[in-house]
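User: I'm putting together notes for a lab meeting next week and I want to include a structural view of one of the chains we've been expressing. I don't have a solved structure, so I'd like a prediction I can at least talk through. The sequence is below, exactly as it appears in our construct file.
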Amino acid sequence: MAVTWTRAWWRWTGGPTTRPVERVVRVDGRSRADEPDDERQAFGRWVRKRPRVDGGKRRGDGCGRRSLSPTWVLAVGGPQSAGRDASRLAGLQRRLQGIAGGLAVYDEAPDNVSSSTYSSTPSLPGCRVAPGRRADAGLPLARVTSNRIDVEALAAMDGVGRFREVLPMLMDPVAFAEAFVSGDAAGGCRVPSRGMERHRATLRSCGVASDARSRPAFAMKAFTTPKKDGRTARLVLDARPLNDAMRRPPSMDLPRLRDFIAEVERHRFAMQCDGVSYFYQFPVDASISRYFGIGMKGCDMLLNVLCMGWSWAPCIAQRASNVLVRDLGLAWVDNFLVLGGTLDEAERNVAVFRKRAQAARVEVRAEGDDALWQVRSRFVCVGVEFDLAAETQRHRLDPAWAERWVDGSGMTAVLSGRATARQFAEVFGGAVWATDILAVPRCHFAALLSFAGRLGGRMVGAAAPVWDEVVDVPPSARRELGALRKIVRENPWVVGGVPEDTGSVLWTDASSRAWAALLEAEGRFVDGRQGVFAGPDADAHINLKEMLAFAEGVVRLCWAPGAQRCRIDNAAVVGAVAKGSSSSYAANRVLSRSLRVAGRRGIVLRPDWVPSGGQLADPYTRGTSLPRFPAQLPLPRSRATPFDLF
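Assistant: Thanks for the context. Below is the predicted structure for the 646-residue chain, given as structure tokens.
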């Protein structure tokens, strides 16, 4: 792993131009309440007593240090010190043994060390060696396109007006200033970036940023994150100061994932491409770029394009993409999918899309090794593999993504029971994505959802969330995650399509004391059940009682395979059944039981909300006995619809 050295590092080591440094060991000390003070002090004394490089007078006595509490950086090496490296590293190991639980040791090679030299250097036995947080510190910034979209031409194509609504945020300084919550856009801030000076030439050459001639209104911290290729990095702006000062952006108009998949599976052919450095293709007016400053040493820079990190950027990009694919297909931020029921229709739609992209000067490229503008029936898009050539269209997780998630280091740490909050968040985010694509109801993972909710609430409530804090994952959550991991490893195909309706309607309702469930078919009640809540259920929240009534109806009354319509007068239960999960652990357990039974019987539940006055099961929760079946439907107390309430 290469690390580009800043001038500050050069001062302690003599720098690449004065002497070669063969090895760098950086030790990050994590603060722990149970770490003895004497051990911390002993380690600090050991670091400080090492000889320092001073203007080359002790050249070859290669041990420089810098105290970045609680971080120490040691440079070990030099043309005359190779024989002493082993003893110095052994001394470091001995000093670390007492506090190794609170330390992470990182081996890094500076730019003037060849990969062969670095790979042959010994590691620290007995100490935990892991990549640093800035694993991308040595990666060059990816070259991005210098193309700029003609946003005015794109706005002229917008027949709906959703893109024209947000276009002033790129072009009109008055509209941009009005988006500030306080109305004062001149407050500003300056947060310096670390190590970004080395990317200045790349940012200039691509036209992404230019040197600021005056102090920016907001000069924020920028950083880089590795791209998927692992060889280059992308620029991200930590725009939280600007985001906090502005009002929230409107809806992105991003389709729901399930709706996206369902729409794709209604077609047989598709052409996929994505925007080249898509955010960087959107120009920002010079009068607005002063709000997108990058704090740098020497001279700040101003971004001339849309930046990742600004809360409005995804909204602007998605709405622009929707203009390009309107009536032709779908867009997921910078991914374009042109669809067609037949090959001829798909090719015609591709021709229209090409004409729109050329008119708006949008630069696109093919995904992976595919040829640009090629129409296919099997492809991977937004992490989903589609097979539209099968007799029944189907989809599953992208096999490459599934393999990374299943065998990743974060998964191993979480399943071991001790992982950082960051690792758990990354694994849990993948779990949510996988359950959506594989159509696995999340209520089956009630313990995992409950632990994630508690951890998320703690992080949101903290003044400074510590994402590197080690958390204990409960065994029940680990068991559920292991079960989901097995499903993802198998990565089964999910067949699309809508099942046939069963022809019946399930009515369920609950009161504070009792529940009732009735099955309607052909205009009359054909079966029903009712009961009284007892034990812990008697004191449960009304939402949980409604969920219990729904579960009883599904388990006892629904047997025919197909789409089963359900009528419920509780919006929380309707939402939970539709999503396949609830924010309540108890409700998830009850819903999981219902969906398992429905799945074994081949039933797909279709919940609908009805007002309490139109709930036909309501009288049977308030003392009325069930009729003899089959029975005529009672007249509802009201024929109101949800729209009548407004």
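A couple of points you could mention at the meeting. Residues 343-359 form the longest helix (17 residues). The two ends are 61 Å apart (CA to CA).

User: Perfect, that's what I needed.
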